[in-house]
Amino acid sequence: MPSPSTFDHVPVLAEAVLSGLAPLAGLLAERPQGGVLLDCTLGGGGHSALLLQAHPGLRVVGLDQDPSARVAAAEQLAPFGDRALIVAANFADYAPAEPILAVLADLGVSSPQLDVAERGFSFRLDGPLDMRMNPTDGETAGALIDRLQEGELADLIYGYGEERLSRRIARRIKEQGPWGDPARPRGTAELAYLVAGCYPPAARRGRIHPATRSFQALRIAVNDELGALDRLLAAAPDWLVPGGLLAIISFHSLEDRRVKTAFLADERLERITRRPLVADETEAAINPRSRSARLRIARRR
Ligand SMILES: C[S@@+](CC[C@H](N)C(=O)[O-])C[C@H]1O[C@@H](n2cnc3c(N)ncnc32)[C@H](O)[C@@H]1O
């Protein structure tokens, strides 16, 4: 089995992805020339490697907007030669050149993105307030904080982080600004400390770090994650062959609600999973990231 160790990102719900996409075997059996799976969030290539291994007639087109992910995926997928094509793209702006047998999206950030302080995603490590998955495009988290009015920042933290202390947090953040001034760089550790200070002392010692929701909100906004997901849900059914599969792994309720609603309402799709597939106890114990993962799969009519 290919090792995910090169990128240090363990693919979540691997068994559920493999079994949920097992109908690929039937789709490929009808196509002696083979067919394509579009991996919209290649990351380290963990899911793609497993699927390429399971289905010899399959080719993968893998997208990622993060150059470091593409480097890791190229290494992971090298044994599959020209069965894997890696493309630098945001899935929100992509349109495949040929009909697709399955579309997979494993949303959000990867473990390596969180673990490299310089990327600015982590409240546990000190790095610049960046949070861009594509480090060459768009506004950093620090610049976003500086551009928004206090009320707008509070709405963002509430809307994308479901953080009930959003008003207090936004006030404290704006009182301490600016955050995106290159001449006076201020980092993730300072922001995390400030957010934690908005919580009552007892609540600061919980299992979830007090800055989790605020950091999630900023990351979602910086990368327009919900806008990208909405565009993918609107476009992907048209990319699929009849019987083709759309599989989406989401990590919080704002994403999962969108996927659930789209799969129910979209007449091009038929739900395969009525309830989302989740990690079992063993996976949850080994890979903490899997605890919030929800996999939903639909089939193109
Ligand atoms: C959770 S990781 C995927 C891990 C992968 N399934 C694996 O097994 O290694 C998500 C990846 O998707 C990328 N990503 C997130 N949103 C994206 C988007 N809109 N377009 C392209 N890539 C995106 C991130 O840069 C990250 O590398």
Structural notes for this entry:
The two termini are 33 Å apart. The chain has a seven-stranded mixed sheet, sandwiched between helices. The longest helix has 15 residues, at 225-239. Mean pLDDT is 94; it is low at 1-6. It has 301 residues and is of the alpha/beta class. It folds into two domains: 14-112 and 226-300, Vaccinia Virus protein VP39 (Rossmann fold), CATH 3.40.50.150; 135-222, DNA polymerase, domain 1. The chain has helices at residues 14-20, 24-29, 46-54, 67-77, 111-115, 141-147, 150-161, 166-176, 188-196, 212-222, 225-239, 253-265, 281-286; strands at 35-39, 58-64, 84-88, 100-106, 240-250, 269-271, 294-300. The radius of gyration is 20 Å and the shape is elongated. It binds S-adenosylmethionine.
Rounded mean pLDDT score: 94
Q: Tell me the CATH superfamily of the largest domain.
A: Vaccinia Virus protein VP39
- What fold name stands as the CATH topology of the largest domain? Rossmann fold
Q: Helix coverage percent of residues?
A: 40-55%
Our estimate of the beta-strand percent is 5-15%
Order of helices and strands: HHEHEHEEHHHHHHHEHEHE
Poorly predicted tracts of residues: 1-6
Major sheet: 7 strands, mixed
Number of domains: 2
- From the N-terminal CA to the C-terminal CA, the straight-line distance is 33 Å
DSSP summary, beta strand count: 7
